[in-house]
Amino acid sequence: MSAIVLNNNFEKDSELALPESYSGINGHNLYLYVKSYQAGIRANTASTKTRSEVSGGGKKPWAQKGRGGARAGSTRSPIWRSGGISFGPSANRNYIQKVNKKQKKLALNFALDALATEGKLFIVDSIEVASGKTKDAQSIMDKLNQRDVLIVKDMIDEKTFLAFRNIQSAYVVESNELNAFLAATYRSVVIEKAVWENLTKEA
Q: Of 83, 124, 99, 105, which is closest to residue 39 (Cα–Cα)?
């Protein structure tokens, strides 16, 4: 598979073959990484109170015997209205799922290879909007002619960030923020040449 190399006008100039290590990767690595990533960003705010945490209920509602009904020790029992919750969610739960570094790299390589297969992986020398204006960033998007684009820069400058900020179909990240989840989420990826060389250096 090959990535499409763009010139300064964001037009196709040539193609660049992906390293051989990018092919033949088991897609399960991507599944495990995405599952781990989404688990890691869970808010973990769901919480309920057990019978020991609900206020009140200290007095026994009625005598143990002689009433003819079921015995009760507290009005905060889970079977009572306004009582505690049995086996409810707790904010103490740990959702973290471990994925080792090798799997993370394989997942990213698989996602990039899939994009290259569809002709949606682009490499360009540099992406910079010196004016900081959204209309100039939109003109770049129009030239790319993609539904949505993940732009990976070596370092994000303030002007470029401001220019792309209000474009919903574009998202700009630095090289250290690139991961398999983002690469798999966006339908096309544009990577600066310096970032690509760093990615494939150890491939």
A: 99
Per CATH, the number for 2-41+98-200 is 3.40.1370.10
Q: Which two tokens stand for residue 1?
A: 């598979």
Q: Output the pLDDT for position 31.
A: 97
Confidence grade of residue 108 (pLDDT, cut at 50, 70, 90): very high
Take residue 9 and report the two structure tokens written for it: 């006008």
Give the domain ranges of the chain: 2-41+98-200, 43-94
- Mention every residue, 6+ apart, whose C-beta is less than 8 A from residue 104: 33, 179, 180
> How far is Cα 172 from Cα 186, in angstroms, rounded to an integer?
12
pLDDT tens string 38-48: 999 988 899 99
The per-residue pLDDT for range 109-159, each reduced to its tens digit, is 999 999 999 999 999 999 999 999 999 999 999 999 999 999 999 999 999
Measure Cα distances from 180 to 59, 61, 107 in Å.
Answer: 57, 58, 6
The amino acid present at 80, given as its one-letter code, is W
Q: What is the DSSP letter of 22?
A: G
Record the pTM: 0.82
